[in-house]
């Protein structure tokens, strides 16, 4: 037993409630268990109980042992002056005499305790994987809707924090997020650092000249140097040296990862595609905010790397010719991980519910992502038909399963109820 499980049992009243008595033998009835308190003070507030013929309203405190009351130094804490009931798992006879005590040790289902112990002790990341799908499709739908809102609100907070650090400059924050998106998971942090090293005002000033935008990106990433032989690379290097001096830019430490990547996804190709997108789309965030269909949105991001990259994956090493378009999987990644979060955050910050509902609708329309986690969930029989499904299941995995938050999960709740 632990206090979080005890709180859960009390919150949802998962114990045998007939013929309740305090440790002093008085008849007890729980009229309302109270509201879980996540701040300082007793575990539950605004509770109502009946002891004998007397109705009491106030707080309820929970402990594994009744002696924990003194161990936690509640006796001298004014936050606990209005406690009307001390709920404990085991009574070892050490609660202040004026506070009634209820013992739950023999009132909770052995099956609930057994299942909880099993979930906590399993080495599997998804503790309930042997029991899935558990919920019916309607219950999964409701749980996923809650998860996707949690995920987008969490990401929105991260974006709004960046906005606050940047004097409310949405275009600047979008520029950082867009660059990180083009870096995909493995190079996202590096690409974001590159973007942060180039003020968006500089990007806007030079976006009409593709070679200058490319020079800024490749130069700040330290991917061009004097040892390169191609005329294209030498031009970029000269342009970058001029722009770096003009704007007093500091290049980024470290470098991008190439290892175990398909050549079409090399950071050189992604930076070139990002440069072309910036060159082709002026006021991109404004355009993104104004579109109403997912098809129109996808078209905004359809682009390809400049001509040099048709015959190269890296500088100075020619290969057979092929246009380097942004592929469908990359487009899907940008929609899900860049556009949807930034627009949801924009709607959140501006109080625009319609904007938030629009991006949720887009997630229903976008194809499901394919990765190790989403494939696993699909194998368990969980409906997985759209990006909303996969994003909500990723949230479930990373925020609940990995952290063993089974007591806060709809699936865990259903399993424990039996």
Structure write-up:
α4 crosses α16, α5 runs antiparallel to α13 and α13 (328-350) runs antiparallel to α14. The chain has 418 residues and is α/β, with parallel strands linked by helices. Helices cover 50% and strands 9% of the residues. β2 (35-36) and β3 (44-51) form a beta hairpin.
Question: What does this entry show, briefly?
Answer:
The chain has 17 helices and six strands. By secondary structure, the protein is an alpha/beta fold.
Main features:
418 residues, alpha/beta, six-stranded mixed sheet, 17 helices, 9% strand
Q: By helix and strand content, what is the structural category?
A: alpha/beta
Distance between the termini: 18 Å
Q: What is the number of E strands?
A: 6
Helix-strand string? HEEEEHEEHHHHHHHHHHHHHHH
Write the layout of secondary structure elements.
Blueprint: H1 3-11, E1 28-32, E2 35-36, E3 44-51, E4 54-65, H2 68-71, E5 83-90, E6 101-103, H3 110-121, H4 137-165, H5 170-182, H6 184-196, H7 200-206, H8 210-220, H9 231-247, H10 267-280, H11 284-290, H12 294-300, H13 328-350, H14 353-365, H15 372-379, H16 387-401, H17 410-417
Helix pairs in contact: 4-13, 4-16, 5-6, 5-13, 8-9, 8-10, 13-14
């Amino acid at each position: 037993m632990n206090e979080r499980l005890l709180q859960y049992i009390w919150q949802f009243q998962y114990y045998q409630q007939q013929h309740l008595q305090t440790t002093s033998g008085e008849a007890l009835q729980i009229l309302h268990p109270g509201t879980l308190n996540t701040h300082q003070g007793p575990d539950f507030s605004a509770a109502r109980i009946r002891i004998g013929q007397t109705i009491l309203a106030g707080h309820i405190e929970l402990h594994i042992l009744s002696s924990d009351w003194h161990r936690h130094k509640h006796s001298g804490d004014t936050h606990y002056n209005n406690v009307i009931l001390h709920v404990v798992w085991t009574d070892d006879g050490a609660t202040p005499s004026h506070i009634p005590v209820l013992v739950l040790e023999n009132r909770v289902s052995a099956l609930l305790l057994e299942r909880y112990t099993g979930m906590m002790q399993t080495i599997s990341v998804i503790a309930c994987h042997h029991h899935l799908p558990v919920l019916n499709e309607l219950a999964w739908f409701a749980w996923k809707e809650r998860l996707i809102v949690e995920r987008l609100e969490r990401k929105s907070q991260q974006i709004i924090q960046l906005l606050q650090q940047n004097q409310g400059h949405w275009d600047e924050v979008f520029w950082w997020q867009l660059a990180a998106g083009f870096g995909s998971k493995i190079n996202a942090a590096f690409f974001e650092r590159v973007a942060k090293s180039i003020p968006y005002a500089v990007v806007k000033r030079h976006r009409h000249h593709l070679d200058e935008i490319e020079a800024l990106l490749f130069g700040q990433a330290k991917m061009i140097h004097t040892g390169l032989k191609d005329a294209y690379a030498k031009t970029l290097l000269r342009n970058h040296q001029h722009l770096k001096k003009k704007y007093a830019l500091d290049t980024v430490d470290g470098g991008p990862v190439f290892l175990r990547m398909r050549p079409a996804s090399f950071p050189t190709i992604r930076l070139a595609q990002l440069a072309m997108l910036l060159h082709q789309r002026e006021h991109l965030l404004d355009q993104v905010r104004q579109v109403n269909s997912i098809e129109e949105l996808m078209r905004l991001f359809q682009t390809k790397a400049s001509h040099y990259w048709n015959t190269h994956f890296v500088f100075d090493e020619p290969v057979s010719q092929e246009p380097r378009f942004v592929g469908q999987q990359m487009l899907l990644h940008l929609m899900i991980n860049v556009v949807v979060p930034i627009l949801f955050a924009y709607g959140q910050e501006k109080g625009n519910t319609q904007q938030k509902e629009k991006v949720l609708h887009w997630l229903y329309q976008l194809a499901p992502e394919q990765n190790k986690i989403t494939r696993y969930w699909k194998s368990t029989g969980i409906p997985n038909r759209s990006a909303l499904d996969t994003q909500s299941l990723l949230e479930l995995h990373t925020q609940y399963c990995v952290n063993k938050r089974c007591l806060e999960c709809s699936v865990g709740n259903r399993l424990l109820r039996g």
